[in-house]
Amino acid sequence: MAEFVTVDRVEPGIAVLRFARAPLNRIDLQLALELSAAADTLALDEEVRAVIVYGDERVFSAGDETAELARWTPAQARAVAADLQDALGCLARIPQPTIAAISGYAVGVGLELALGADRRLIGDNVKLGLPQIRAGLIPVAGIGRLSRVIGPGPAKELVYTGRFVDAAEAAALGLVDEVVAPDDVFVAALRWARQFAAGPARALAAAKRVFEAGPDTAGSARTEWAELFGTEDRSIGTCSYSASGPGVAEFVGR
């Protein structure tokens, strides 16, 4: 049983992956591994069509558990680095569309986790940043993804300085996709997730794999496109589209 992570099916097709580690949702190794395990379970659940990742109403995550990091030797750090990096990238592995619903703060490893989501939605009072450099460290999992999201120049500036950005700057950088009132964060995330509850799950998963393919996007797209011709949803969707146009197909997720 996970100590800090829960999964709730709030509506048909929609799961909420929630983590709560008082008082500030700092992510230690245990919490990171619990998040990864829960994400891997959701990835196999065919009834789940979209995932909302949510921390506390007050704070998504205040970042790294520096008290734990202060105790690790170089040998211990080398031993856990791959597992921690893999865990913080767990949202990118989920085949379903994912949205990080962010309140208060998403900094350090909290932001690294959120960078793996397909969409990031924040309250207009949120602060974001990767301040690990101020502790003599670097982000273990977020540098490459941050560079792809906002570009290498802005990414270097944020990582090298470790400074925080507010909601307006985060939106301008493209670091987040939507800014809402603080009290509306979860409701807005749920509204976004609902559009996939009855969607073509296999095609959505294929599209996500192409986005995650890195330099071989073209090759990945060819393979995924061709494989979709063996799915029920492709047959349903193309026939429906041909007869009635977009938006009326009733997909089955197979």
Automatic annotation (TrEMBL):
<dbReference type="GO" id="GO:0006635">
    <property type="term" value="P:fatty acid beta-oxidation"/>
</dbReference>
<keyword id="KW-0456">Lyase</keyword>
<dbReference type="InterPro" id="IPR001753">
    <property type="entry name" value="Enoyl-CoA_hydra/iso"/>
</dbReference>
<protein>
    <submittedName>
        <fullName>Enoyl-CoA hydratase</fullName>
        <ecNumber>4.2.1.17</ecNumber>
    </submittedName>
</protein>
<dbReference type="InterPro" id="IPR029045">
    <property type="entry name" value="ClpP/crotonase-like_dom_sf"/>
</dbReference>
<dbReference type="Pfam" id="PF00378">
    <property type="entry name" value="ECH_1"/>
</dbReference>
<comment type="similarity">
    <text>Belongs to the enoyl-CoA hydratase/isomerase family.</text>
</comment>
<keyword id="KW-0443">Lipid metabolism</keyword>
<dbReference type="GO" id="GO:0004300">
    <property type="term" value="F:enoyl-CoA hydratase activity"/>
</dbReference>
